[in-house]
Write a structure and sequence with these properties.
- InterPro entries: Integrase_cat-core, Retrotran_Ty1/copia-like, RNaseH-like_sf, RNaseH_sf, SH3_retrovirus.
- This is Retrovirus-related Pol polyprotein from transposon TNT 1-94.
- GO terms for molecular function: DNA-directed DNA polymerase activity; endonuclease activity; hydrolase activity; metal ion binding; nucleic acid binding; RNA-directed DNA polymerase activity.
- Residues 1-110 form the Integrase catalytic domain.
- By secondary structure, this protein is α+β, with helices and mostly antiparallel strands.
- Helix content is 31%, strand content 17%.
- It is built from four helices and seven strands, in the order ββαααβββββα.
- The relative contact order is 0.09.
Length: 240
């Protein structure tokens, strides 16, 4: 997986998938040559890449791209998005034949999902490091970027220090962001107004139709006596 450079200088992702459980590991590299350092022994006759890994690669890219775009986060945090996507998929996808998640097949126990949070959501980190004065903030605002691989801590970017750190003392605000698509509004007032305009036009059309009918009747009526001033010829002249 070749992506933009992350905030730590990584440009590549090495995706490793266990063939039996489908448990997935991701390792982030600054250069492709670092991939060989991740393995001490390669099993002979094992393909370097296969369809399973390629599909997993595409899935991780699509999910990570969606997570970043949904929260409007910079692309330099793509490593965190990929890592979080891998972490979640290992614990929620169920293998159809075995009926268990990759985590359960590999670890032998069901995963805990209660601590899952929305990627990129706003959070507040309890200030436990600094000596607090009377008016010092007790917490700092941050952005949730994933889960620690070595503990139960959350990975947070602290907006105050502008550093990525791990912490257990985090409070989350998972209010969904405003929708980017305007909803369709069903306004009864507009509907009533449209009905009134339609009825008015129909009434005007009926009046016009009646007027035309009357005019036609008047035009075809015959008169027995014409006014004298409308007579062209001499009245005393004999008609042949």
């Amino acid at each position: 997986m070749n992506l933009f450079e992350s905030y730590r200088g990584n440009r590549y992702t090495l995706v490793i998938v266990d063939d039996y459980s489908r448990y997935t590991w991701t390792r982030f590299l600054k250069d492709k040559t670092e991939a060989f350092d991740q393995f001490e022994i390669l099993t002979p006759c094992t393909p370097q890449s296969n369809g399973v890994v390629e599909r997993k690669n595409r899935t991780l890219q699509e999910i990570s791209r969606t997570m970043l775009n949904e929260q409007s986060l910079p692309q330099k945090f793509w490593c965190n998005a990929v890592d979080t996507s891998t972490y979640i998929l290992n614990r929620i996808l169920v293998r159809a034949i075995l009926g268990k998640t990759p985590y359960e097949l590999l670890k032998g126990r069901k995963p805990t999902l209660e601590y899952f949070k929305v990627f990129g959501s706003k959070c507040f980190i309890l200030n436990t490091r600094d000596y607090l004065m009377k008016f010092d903030p007790k917490s700092y605002e941050g952005i949730f970027l994933g889960y620690s691989q070595n503990s139960k801590s959350y990975i947070i970017i602290n907006k105050h220090t502008r550093k990525v750190e791990e912490s257990l003392n985090v409070t989350f605000d998972e209010t969904p962001p405003p929708s980017k698509i305007l909803p369709l509004v069903d306004n009864d007032l507009y509907e009533e107004e449209a009905i009134k305009v339609t009825e008015k036009k129909n009434l005007e059309n009926d009046i016009v139709d009646e007027t035309l009918k009357i005019d036609e009747i008047v035009n075809i009526m015959e008169s027995r006596n014409h006014p004298l001033e409308n007579v062209i010829r001499n009245l005393n002249q004999r008609t042949l």
